[in-house]
Amino acid sequence: MTEITIGGRSVGPAHKPFIIAEMSGNHNQSLERALALVDAAAAAGVDALKLQTYTADTISMDTGFAIAEQGQSLWEGQNLYKLYQEAHTPWEWHAELFARARQHGLLAFSSPFDETAVDFLETLDVPAYKIASFENAHWPLLRKVAATGKPVIVSTGAATLAEIDDAVRVLREAGCRELVLLKCTSTYPASPANTNLRTIPVLAETFGCPIGLSDHTMGVGASVAAVALGACVIEKHFTLSRAEGGVDAAFSLEPAELQALVVETERAHQALGGVQLCVQRSEEKSRLYKRSIYVAKPIAAGEEFTTDNLKIIRPGDGLWPRHWETVLGRKAAKALKPGTPLNWDAI
């Protein structure tokens, strides 16, 4: 299935990219800021707002585990449990944030991180579910989400092809009929060098579903390139201001950049077009501005054409340059003035 529907919106290669603005923990535990983020996402023109639904206790335990991804993580050295306490979106905010999104015409859904989150999100009638990369091997969660019958978007970060295949099989066997896979590199931030966008058409061919990109790189370049390779969905973290900080702020887009993402990915999609190996109707008038052979000096009837009395110039009213060698050495059939386009009847 190369096209699905999320909340009444078609998602697939024939449609403009479906842009998801990921709030994550960039609300900095302020509901006022979270609502401002929703407003900013809507103003940027995205299709959907996404939250993350977990608590520190539903995602981890306070065991003292510290992140040890030396040089690869913004959160190196931080206590994992305390990080989730800082980053989580309070569940009591969800209804208000979703309502605000709907007022703006945005779709709003979330990434559940355990089965209780799915039960909670079902009470809010979300139109779809997103599975985060670190949960794509969580089969009980996959089955729970699939059983809702709603579209499922799965990030494929930190997974082998076999593990992606397992996740797709589990979802489909549990009732998922509308599936999107997102190419994802689970480093924060990701670099262009480890984004590997050429994977996108391979995933599309392998799994027969719409493919997108969960983009943790800086800027919009990787997302635009992904659309050129067939990505139908783009997910990006966003913030009001990187300078104001936040758990994900360092690799999140600011509002003007988010708007640029919307504009430039749509342009990339439009630019794909079809295979065009002829002159388009829109180009026909432009053919006049190609070069052609013109008389450069007065030529008498019977005089030979030479490189001195002819020139190849614009516009294209005369014989095309491919006839240059054929014309040279031939004789004029009539007198010709400078600035006259040379045609066969003058030879």
UniProtKB/TrEMBL annotation:
Keyword set includes Mitochondrion: no
Signal peptide (from-to): none
Gene3D superfamilies, per database record: Aldolase class I, Antifreeze-like/N-acetylneuraminic acid synthase C-terminal domain
Transmembrane segments annotated in the record for this chain: none
Alphabetized UniProt keyword annotations: Transferase
Pfam families with a match to the protein in the record: NeuB (PF03102), SAF (PF08666)
EC number(s) from the headed UniProt entry: 2.5.1.97
AFP-like domain span: 292-347
UniProt GO MF annotations: transferase activity
Classification via PROSITE patterns: AFP_LIKE (PS50844)
Matches recorded under InterPro entries: AFP_Neu5c_C_sf, Aldolase_TIM, PseI-like, PseI/NeuA/B-like_N, Pseudaminic_synth_PseI, SAF, SAF_AFP_Neu5Ac, SAF_PseI/NeuA/NeuB
Protein name (record): Pseudaminic acid synthase
Lineage, opening ranks: Bacteria, Pseudomonadati, Bacteroidota, Cytophagia, Cytophagales
Gene that produces this protein: pseI
